[in-house]
Amino acid sequence: MYLAYAFPVTAPAPSAEHWQSLFTLYVIAAVIVAGVVFVLFFFFLVKYRRRPGVAEPADAPKVGVMVDRGNPALAAILTALLVALFFGLTLNTFALNAYLQQPPNDPNAVHIDVIGFQWGWRFVYSNGKDVIGEMRVPQHVTVILNITSQDVFHSFGIPDFKIKRDALPGRVNVAWFVADANIGSVYKIRCYELCGTGHALMTADLLVLDPAAFTTWLKGA
Amino acid sequence: MVDWYPLKRWLLTTNHKDIGLLYLFTSLYFFVAAGVLALTFRVQLAVPSNTFLQPDQYNQAVTTHGLLMLLWVLTPLGAAFANYFVPIQIGARDMAFPRLNALSYWLYLASGLLALSAYFAPGGTADWGWTTYAPLNTVEFSPAVGGSMMGLALMLLMASSIVATVNFLVTIFRLRAPGMSLMRLPLFTWTWIFTSLLMLWAFPAFVSALSLLIADRAFGTVFFTSAQGGSLLWGHMFWFFGHPEVYVLLLPGFGIAGDLLSTFSRRPLYAKRIIIPCLAIASILSFTVWAHHMFMTGISPSLLEAFNVTTELISIPFAIIVLAYILTLRGGSIRFSTPMLFAVGSLALFIIGGVTGVFNSSIALDSAFRGTFWVVGHFHYTIVGGGLTGLFGGLYYWFPKMTGRMYNERLGKIHFVIYMIGFNLLYFPMHILYDMPRRIYTYDVAAWGPINLLITIGGFTFGISQLLMFGNLLWSARRGPTADRDPWGGYSLEWGVPSPPPEFNFPEGIPVVSATGVTYRPVSMANGGHHEATHGEEHWSRWPIVVAIGAGIAFWGVLMGLPALALGTVIFAAAIAGWGRENLRGRWGEAIETIGEKWPFARLENLTLGMWIFIFGEIAFFGTLFGAYVFLRMNAPLTGFAWPDPTEVHNMFLGGFNTILLLTSGLTMVLALTCARKGNQVGLQVSLLATFFLGAFFMIIKALEWRELFQSNFTFSTNVASSTYYLLTGVHGAHVVAGLTALTYLMVKAFKGGFGPQKSGAVEIFGIYWGMVDAVWVFLFPLLYLL
Description:
The complex is a heterodimer of chains A (221) and B (787).
Chain A: H1 14-47, H2 72-101, E1 110-117, E2 120-125, E3 130-132, E4 134-138, E5 142-149, E6 154-158, E7 163-167, E8 173-178, E9 186-191, E10 203-209, H3 211-219
Parallel strand pairs in A: 1-5, 4-10
Antiparallel strand pairs in A: 1-2, 2-3, 5-8, 6-7, 6-9, 9-10
Chain B: H1 5-12, H2 16-45, H3 55-90, H4 98-117, H5 145-174, H6 187-219, H7 230-265, H8 272-285, H9 301-328, H10 338-361, H11 366-369, H12 373-403, H13 409-427, H14 448-479, E1 510-514, E2 517-521, H15 543-560, H16 562-581, H17 591-595, H18 606-638, H19 646-649, H20 652-678, H21 681-711, H22 720-751, H23 761-786
Antiparallel strand pairs in B: 1-2
C-alpha cells in the first residue's frame, strides 16, 4: 500500500490520522532533500572560502566576459529524481484526497447543513433542528456536511480533524468525517478566511456524543 | 539667488539613473511604512486576547501591509535596480523611451499616495485582505470609500507598471551594445526580462479584475454580488494575476543573488544556458498553477489534481537553478563581503520556502494549511527570504557604484547576522501554527501565545535590523571611503564605468563586447560628444510629472466628484498635448541603436515594437475579460440563471451595422498608412478623417444602444448578463475613445503636413492599435449579440 500509511498516529478522527501520516511523509522527504542541499551548499561555502596566498580561479569574472560552463546532464538527472519523488508524494496525496472528497455511501450517516454567516456558524440537521454555535455529532458515525455561506466568503475548518472546506455564498461544498474521539470531548470549529471584523470570533464548538444520547438530543425540542 | 537646480533635476529628470534612485528612495519609504504597519499587528498578536488594535484597524493594517509590500515595495525596488543598471548592463546610454520611464515613476508615486490617502478616507481604507476576496469586497459588506480608492490606486499602479514593462522590453531588445548578444546578458537583466514578461501578462489580467470590482463598487454592476460570478469569479481572475505576481516579486532578487554568488566566489555562473530556459519554463508554468490557491473552494476534483501536478512541476526549474547556484561556488575563492552574505542568505531562505511550497502543492495537506499561518510562513520565506534578501544584497553590491563611496563592511555584516536571526525567529515558528487562522485580530488559545510572542520578537528584531542598513548607507553616502570602479571584480558592464556613472554612462565610447572582454569605440557622432559628469538639462522634460499629476487627480476624482475628475482630465490632456509637441530626439546620440545588437527585433522600429508589446498586454487584458465571460456563461445554468437570449435583448441591426462601421474604419486606416508611406498627403488626410468619422459614428450608435437598453430596464445592475454587456462594450468603447483622441492628434499633424514617407511611424503604430480595437470587436460582437 501507499507509504504514507506506514506512519500511523492516534488522532480524534480517521481524517486527522491519515493527514498526519501524509504530513509525516512529506516532512521526511523535505528533511532529506533540504538536508542534502544544505550540506552541499555549506560544504562548498566552507571548502572554497578564500585563503590568503591562493590565486583566483583562472576563469574569474572580468568586465564584459561571459564564460559558459556547466553540464546539462545534471539538470536531466535532477529532473528525473524530482519527478520520481513527486510521483511518490502525489500518489499518496491523491489517495488521501479521494478519501476526503468522497463521503462513504452510508445509510446511517448524519447529514448537517452548515451555514456560515457574519459571524458564526449555523447547523441545520435533516429533521430541521437548527443550532447556532454548536455542532453535536455521534461518535463513530459518518457525518456529512453541506457547507455554504449566507453572506461572504468563509472557510469552515475543524483543525483537530484536519477537515476544511470553503463556505461560499450560492454554492454548497461537501465535507465529511467520523469522530472517533472520546464521548464528551469538545473541539473548535473556526473560520479560515478573512470575513470582516468578526473573523477572529467566528468559532463554534464540536461536541462528540454517545450515539444514543445524540438521537435523544436530536429529537428533543 | 535660490539654486533650483537640485529640485528641478529630480522633478524633471528622464535619466534612467536618476529615476532608478527615485524608485529606490520611494520603495524604501513604502518599505518602512508597510513594515511599521506589520509591527503594529505583531504587537496586537503578541499575547492572547490583546486589545492594542481594534478589529477594523487590524484588518486595514493587514490589508495595507500586504498590498504595499507586494506592489509598492518589492516590485519597485527591483525596478529601481533595473532602471539604474539594466541600461548600463546592456551597454545603452538610457532607456528606449526616457520620458515614458519618468512617467512610470510619477504614476507609481501618484498611485502610492492615492493608496496611502485611502487610509485617511472616512471609514478607513480597504479591509478585506490583500487578496480582496468577493463578496467581502463589494459595497454591501465593505462600504468605505477608501476601499474603492485602494482599487483605483492599484489600477494606476498597474498602468505605471505596464508602461515600464513596454519600455524595458524595447530597451533590452533594441538598445544592446555591439556584441552584447542575448546570451551574454547578465543574469539580473535576464531575470528582469522574465519579470517584465510576467508583468506584461499578469498585470493586465489584474486590471480586468479591478475593472469588474470598480464597476461593481461605483456603477452597481453585479459581478461579485451575484451567485453566477461571486467568490469563484474573483478567485480565478485574481489568482491568474496573483501567482505570476509572486514570481515578479521573487525573480529580480533571485537573479541578483545568482550574479553575486558568481562574482564573490570568483567563478562564472554555472550552467547559465540552463538557468535561462528554466526561468522561461517557470514563467510559463506560473500561469498554470493559480487554482492551488483555491483547493478548498469545491472546484472539480480532476482540476484539483491537475493543479497539484503543475504546482509540483514548477519547483523543478527552480530546483535546477538552485543546484546551478550551488555548483557555481565549486572551485571558487569565496569572499564573504556583505552582498555575498545576503546572496547566501537569499538562497538558503529560498530553499526552505521552496520545500514548504511542495507541501502546499498537495491538495490533501491543504485541508489543514489553507488559510493558516503555515501559508504566511511559506510565502514570506520565498518572497521576503528569497526576493527581498537578494535585493538587499544588490543594494550593498551596487551602493559603491551608485554613490562612489563604500559602505561600512562591519556594520553590513552585523546587519546580516541580526537580519537572519530576526527573519527566522519571525517566520519559522509560523509553520508550527498550522492550526491558527491567518488574519485573525485576536485569539484565546493559550498554546499559541508563546509562539506568537516569539514571532513578534523576531518581527521587531528583523525590523530594527534594517535601521542598521539605513544608517550605514546614509552615513557612508557622504562620509564613506571613496570606491573605485570595480571593488568586487564584477563581470557586468557597470563595473567598467566610473562610480557613479556619468550622464551617458560610457565616457570612453560605445562598449563593444567580445569573447575576451569589453573595449570602447570612441563616439564620432556630432551630438554624442558630451560626457560631463553632471546631469544636464538634455534630459529634462516637464511633461511626465504633469501627466501623472493629472492622472492622479482624475483617479481621485472618480470618487471625489466631477470637479476633481474634470480638473484631472484637463491637466492630463494638456500634458499629453505638451508631450506630443516636445521633441527629445537628438538631445543625445542614438549611436547604439544604429550599430548595436537588436536580435530578434532588428527590423522593427522602437515605437512599433513598443506598440506590439503593449498589444500583447492588451491581449491578456481582454483575454481575461473573455475568460470571465466564459466562466459566467458556464456557471449561469449551475446557479439556476437563464442567460437572456441576446437576439431578444439587443438590436441586431445596430450591432451589425456598428460591426461594419468599425471594420470599414480598419480599412480606411490601412489606406491611411499606405498613403503616409507613399507621401500622399491628401490621401492621408482624407483616410484619417474617414477613420475618425467612422469611429465617432460607432460611438454615437453605441450610446444610442445603451440609452435604448436602459429605457427597456436592461441596466448595469439588472443581472450578470447586463453587467457583462455593459462592461465589455464599455471598456471596448473606452479603447475606441482613446483611439479617437490619438487620431485627433494624427489629423492635426497630417493637416500641417507633418508626415513624410520617412515619418510614417506614428501612423503605423496607431494603425496597429486600431487594428487591435477592431479585432476585439470581432470577438465581442458574436459573444454579446449572437450567442
